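Hi L., both proteins are below.
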Amino acid sequence: MLYHFLYPLNADLILFNVFRYISFRAIMATLTALMISFLLGKPLIDYLREFQIGQMIRDDGPQTHLEKSGTPTMGGVLILFAMTFSCLLWARLDNIYVWVVLGVTLSYGAIGFLDDYLKICRQSPKGLSGKQKLGLQLLIGGLVGFFLWMDPSFRTTLAVPFFKHVQPDLGFWYPVFAALVIAGASNAVNLTDGLDGLAIGPVMICGATYLLFAYVAGHLKLAQYLQVPYIPGSGELCVVCGAMLGAGMGFLWYNAYPAEVFMGDVGSLSLGGFLGAVAVVTKHEILLAIAGGVFVIEAVSVILQVASFKATGKRIFNMAPIHHHFELKGWPEPKVIVRFWILSIVFALMAMSTLKLR
């Protein structure tokens, strides 16, 4: 919004020329979202506590988590508000990719909000069924994929990390692939959100990684030099990624161990959808499996656990997702969280290295 109001004034005052730069607006979006989430965090927590909007803890999880029952949840609303407000303030609102990513983020947030609402109303850890959530996620992801597929300027080829000449074209199958990427990322983040600050840390690290890829993909000369797909206009997603980073940092202030508030499904589903949508728009869908390696490990641990138990009646891990396995092995919760953050940084560096290893 500020771009459209203030940048045209640069003809009279050169100072306003700064609004044309994505880097400046991305930094300001980060700081704005951080300030909003930091200032509104405490009032939101007090509101949630007053109306007894607390987390319902599953009785089949680690017994140490039972003491967290009643901790205010649905804190993801804070992230979504701070991120959206900051984007509307600093992003170019004539950029379609900004609306695509925000649309996915808020739509998935609505699914998560409904799920959290049902849990609170029923006073049960069960909200929407898995089929209901997955169906809605795939529907939204498929619509986004179809919208992009209909755009003649948007390519349906895939960029395969480390192999610059391997670019399979999915053609009319692209909407299906996009739906799987977005829904898969959303559910993987949701599975990771089991400890204080465990999910938001890797989400911010992965988001920062895609901020870099969005800038490169939207810059013609950089994209050509680094041999990545050039997506005109995708650079504006740097502002969106910056807003997410700021909102996430402000939320982490209250979500760090011991957490004063949980993000709930309204946060985890929307943030995962956000990462998937940015990966799709920047044409680095496969790279998300590397940059979001922690989320992949968490999701795969659940898949392996379920498959093993159904096939043999035996479990591979003490408990899945795998962060609970390490808890039951005796690792203190803060140690599990920080080590997973470190792993996330390693995966992010590996993803960024693909810019040169092609």
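That was the first. Here is the second:
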Amino acid sequence: MKRAAVVGAGLAGCEAAWQLARRGVPVDLIEMKPRLRTPAHESPLFAELVCSNSLKSNALTNASGLLKEEMRRVGSLIMQAADATRVPAGGALAVDRGLFARYVTDALAGCPSVRIVSEEVCSLPDAPAIIATGPLTSPALSDAIAALPGLERLYFFDAAAPIVTGESIDRTRAFEAARYDKGDGDYLNCPMTEAEYDAFIGELLCAETAPVHGFEEDRLYEGCMPVESIARRGRLALAYGPMRPVGLIDPRAGRRPFAVVQLRRENAEGTLWNLVGFQTRLRFGEQKRVFGMIPGLERAEFARYGVMHRNTYLHSPSILNERFEARGYRGLYFAGQITGVEGYLPSAASGLIAGISLARDMLALAQVVFPGCTALGALGRYVSSPNKDYQPMGIQYGLIDTPEPRIRNKRLRAERVAERSLETIENIRRALEEEIT
């Protein structure tokens, strides 16, 4: 059988390679690391989590949680790794990013059907192939993609939050708690009085930012908006955003603080902590100065400063079908954030769909299309439906078909959507597993 090429060993590429290999399709997984790295990459391992270590909500009443469960049931490698390396994070699924990347890397390196090729790809490979090079696709490959008739290249800016060492956090000022007690003190919380908040905002607004090539304020993606950009929207923008204190009581004061900065574990040992929602493009010295005003972080040691980078993605509605295959280019698929899906799990989910679909192409099997009543199907429909104003999008219940008759109660409606979705996924899973065995 001809070998399939998967270009890129991020979450989408690793998931795609896994889905091909477990169906008996030989795969070349082509990754330029460790020979070459982008400015956002630090590890030589596959499936590196560049920004946060959180994969968002695990609850079925949340679209992100539903997507996770669908992926688990269809045999996702990324979900196996996430569940095996999770760290406490209340109702969210967060992972030890080092152990997570190691799990995925070892699984693929140990798979007989997968051949690891360490090189940079500068031109489009011949089909069958899946391009999963992510939003940081190299300029040469980006140019090769854009040269195809009918393809259009767009971009937006993404940002990562700082990480501080656990031993440098002043625990006499920060307190352990999850919002509404959802978890066993899974977050560290740095409370602020109104005066402390106002002083912090004042310094944040006048802090010096690092230049980013081609930076445009209107190209910022809402889900990764830098903290200083949010602050410019108004005095209380952060207090109602990433610094909202709802669901938290400062045990020392006995009341809810005016604002709070939450820190989430980066690893199982709790030696590293991420500043939740504090993506930034401040200069490194300014990050240390301004974020050092946060109670409990006065002497914080930064294991990684926040950074911003430019991301590339396709105008997928004019290019891809619901299986992430390029229209008019049989056997050529795209997956991951380059398609405009936003977030770790949606990226991996697109790789799952593309991998299953390409495998069925190569095995001469009828295609399986995930319907719009599922989170997986809703993602495929979003990237392939006509939309001249196409923007990066994560999974949300608004993308999934609403059951009829419409249920007015939001939670009950979400429960019904999840119930119907998982019934559908279970039928698809049985059909797929029968063919694998």
